[in-house]
Amino acid sequence: MARDATYSPRPPVSARTPRLVLAAALVLGVLPLWVSSHLPQVDLPQHLHLISVLHRLEDPTTLYPQLFAARHELTPYLGYYHAVSLLHWLLPLDLANRLFLSAYVVGVPLSLAFLLRALGRPTWPALLALPLAYGDNFGWGFINYLAALPLALLCCGFFVCTLTRVKQRRAWAAGLAVALVAVLLFHVQVFAFLALALPWLLLTTPLPEDAHARGRVERLRPRLPALAGVLPGVALFLAWVVLRLGQPSEVEAGAPWKAWGPMLSPQNLAWKSFAQNRAEFFQVLANLLRDGSDRWPLLAVGAVGACALVLGVVRPAPSPERPLARLRLPGLVVLALGLYFLLPFDIRGYTYYLNTRYAQLAAMLALASVPVTRPSTERALRWASAACALPLALVLGQGFRAFSHEAAEWDALVAATAPKPRVMGLIFDARSRVMNHPVFLHGAAELARARGGITNFSFALTPHSPLRYRGTPPPTFASEWRPQEFDFATQGGAYDHFLVRGVPPSRVFGARLQRELVVTAQAGDSWLVRRR
């Protein structure tokens, strides 16, 4: 029987195996996000509350229309908030957020594989980065920064392809332009890395035309599409800088979330020592669980990388790369490490937790830089790197489920919360028995989001938020980290609900607890106090 002209045989098993291995590893990598009802991220309740406000800004059944307004200006956090808000039109907010986080986790190894392919290297080391999708940045809930990482790796890959793929340069340049703008719309700190990484790739990537080029003009011409591809992102960044720096900053020495002096003045910069950064580097790569068990997947990844390093030295594969081109990926590692060790920890009033975030990016690029080995060993290394996803799924899955049981106290308190609440969060103890990070810090935002209310602290106070308060924000103490500064006489009158965690409400409210206030629910280490 004659075969149809459109028939194409299935790829052989040997060709399908790497794809199946990759798919299995990716499924295991995202599994921890789907086995618990609450995710252990410090800032996540604030993020979800802000997205809920953005999505329901005209909803009269909430407090949102009378208190919040859209901030019609460019901010680098637009990407995450609007992406999840769009998904929220189709799905419940929590589900939309989990899909977004899943795309990020899957995007880390896939975008790294794309960069490796663009550099002409084997793609299997990309799987080694899967455990690094979690860690300190994930625990703090720096979702905008996390989402920008795979986009940055795509930018690097697009940039290299624009330089080296002669026939498709315009298409690759268009992809580069879109990806670079997207990076800026998610997080400016990742954009700062690209400000160093793309020039490095430009200097170290040989072009096919270089062998016949005469003079600088002929060498520059084929590089123009790559330079044009970065122009939209650079123009948008400059526009944002003018808008951001043109706004007056509130200088108040010693006050949290305020500048202590001019932007780059010594009093406004907080540094970690080189020794402290060195000691923390490996810690922040896997520090979610209090028992330290999430370090096992990282140790497994390190073991595979060490094996690849030894095999690459003992039995190296012939490399078609020119000597300078071989330095492209190690150079990116050095740049990321430089940002980690040389930048300040805080620029008060502008950006916080600055240098530590880059440890994750540096580690990803370092694992991808293992030497190229012979094809005979690549299959075993591919299987070994994929196998690292199994302990990742088991350890984090178990840890996330344990935290979810602990965080069920929020669900019990939500049931006792009235519609349109004004919730004061008095979190004297934000610690978890399972997680390292203070994941209960923003519990008040969970109650407010569930009932369409507000909290005493909101990211709407920050200039990078897509929302702002219509008038004066509700009164509160200087920092959500300092509930001991709460003064009922000057601040308590603006709220009808009080979430207290870590100390009995009687120690906070005294005689008012029987006269004006009443405890309506207690769960775990938390109490919900309401006005009578």
From TrEMBL:
Q: Where exactly are the transmembrane stretches of this chain?
A: 20-39, 74-92, 99-119, 139-161, 173-203, 223-243, 296-315, 327-345
Alphabetic keyword roster: Membrane, Transmembrane, Transmembrane helix
Q: What is this protein called?
A: Glycosyltransferase RgtA/B/C/D-like domain-containing protein
